[in-house]
Known about the structure:
Blueprint: H1 14-41, H2 43-54, E1 55-60, E2 67-68, E3 74-86, H3 94-105, H4 109-119, E4 129-132, H5 137-146, E5 153-163, H6 170-173, E6 175-178, H7 181-186, E7 195-199, H8 200-204, H9 206-210, E8 214-220, E9 226-233, E10 241-242, H10 247-257, E11 262-268, E12 274-280, H11 285-289, H12 294-302, H13 324-333, E13 343-345, E14 348-351, E15 354-357, E16 365-367, H14 369-374, H15 378-399, H16 421-428, H17 434-441, H18 451-462, E17 466-468, E18 480-483, H19 488-503, E19 518-526, H20 533-536, E20 550-559, E21 562-570, H21 576-593, H22 601-620
Parallel strand pairs: 2-10
Antiparallel strand pairs: 1-8, 2-3, 3-4, 3-5, 6-7, 8-9, 11-12, 11-21, 13-16, 14-15, 17-18, 19-20, 20-21
Amino acid sequence: MSDLYNHSDQAPPRAGLLLLQGLILFVFCLFSVRLWYLQIHRGEEYALKAKENQLRQERVFSPRGLIRDRNGDLLAVNEPAYALGIVREDCPDIDKTVHQIAAWTGKDYFELKALYNKMRRRVKPFEPLILVPNLSFHKLAIIDANRLRWPGLEIQVRPRRQYRYGKLLAHVLGYVAEANEEEMSKKADLDLGDNVGKQGIEFMLEDRMRGVKGLTQFEVDVTGRRLKERILKHPRAGHEISLSIDLELQKIAMDWLSEEAGGVAVMDANTGQLWALATSPSYDSNDFSSGLSSAQWAELRDNPLHPMQNRVIQSVYPPGSVFKHVVAGAALHYDMVDPKETVNCLGQIKLGRHVFRCWRKGGHGKTDFEKALVQSCDVYFYKMGKKLTVDRMSEFAQAVGFGKTTGIQLPHEKAGIMPTRAWKRKRFGEGWQGGDNLNMSIGQGYTLVTPLQVARFFAGVINGGKLLKPLLLKDDKTVVQAEIPLKPEQLKLLETALIQTVDSDRGTCRRIRTKGVTVGGKTGTAQVVRLTDELKALKDDDIPYRFRDHAWMAAIAEQGDRKFAIAVLVEHGLHGGSGAGPIVKAVIQYLFNGKVLKKPEAKKAKARAARELSFNATRTN
């Protein structure tokens, strides 16, 4: 039996045992080498990576510089805002998370996913890719309550621009909005979700006001939650600036422009500082900083009054009779007028087969230089324009700042049009006609100017002939850009005529007289369209809004060493005296007497009704 269970002949071969032992030894050596490679040869590198996974860095947002008015009142400040982003390395399912973000915020999933795909290459590892830059408190509370269930979500706190007066200074301050790809490519310190200046002072002084970001380092656990945190570099706030604008004067100007379309420029004639720069209608800058909806943008874009346009520097108008002071200056400069010589105004003048009429049907009778300016005699200037021709009128007008930008520190300023013979031939393919000289002499025809250009010219008339750069910052130094090419006694003739236009019983600016203040002015009526005989027969209030003439008034106001120039343009305001005059009066009362004159509610309602009636008729047609 023992032989039956003898297993000695079944002993494993010695060679097989050695092979197994060798294989085990080889595997052990392989693991040892790999362990040596990971722990020793590349141990420092992997330790650093592990530390980086545990320790992360993030930029700390810097607040934009505050903006104040000339008296220290705050105009633009910063408030905390909340942005939602994804840290890709911590997010196990990007698509599902983006779907959830869309559900929470009401955003379109495909838009969010397109933004993610577009910007993921711009975001460094373990940094949040911002998908929703502005969260409401309600949405923030919902997301924060569910954040632990969605790894990779991160809420960032960042400063958001707040404009305290909304529409009041929108065209001066401008607004900030999220930086686009082009802006981020130009500036390395901009990240996805950052806001930059897009219009106004915010745009022009972007680098000065943005500040410098800081840097923080923090520890995270395996779920990506923050543990310890420390500041590596403190953020530096942007520079604070003070505008030359007077907040209360700006309020007065905007109140008088309410329910109207137009602009007001008030310039210190000694320094060039702008105390008011108002344009109406306006928009709320806060709508852009908090994120403008498609509906809000469509409303602004389709508004027939174009509220986004800064009418003081971006809209150009025929200057009407306001331009007569420029033509008068040209005649003095070229020695082509004797101020004492008279012209007999019979109410019209003929040029070939055409009749050019004066605004006063019966004429002004014998009219000299001063009377022509005070009573705005068209016939006198027709004859003056005929002598000067476009060559001299245009040359002088360009010398005193028309047909070129003023250099104000705001974007997209228009130069207007100061026509020449060459300009007309290039634009219309035809030569300059004799009638063009007559139209130009009274501020009609092809001439187009901005209200700011008008204010700067009249400031030059009363400050000794200096054409000053319009300034918006209180601390900026005065810049003399050019000199009006007139002798002191010639400037005095223009200034005296302005004053007499207010003080004289026949002057067209009588309504802006102010006790204790030397006030001068010039009204202007700029024709929008040639009225038919049927429309001419209507009373002013019955003329459709869109056919009414624009109303101008340029004014000067002096008391001691204080000197101001004021330009007001009211679109379709009919007459300079009644349409723009009350605004000038309110400005002067505040500047010199500290009084606040409010626009009567009845006038607001009347202007609103006329405009709405006209727009409704336009839509119907």
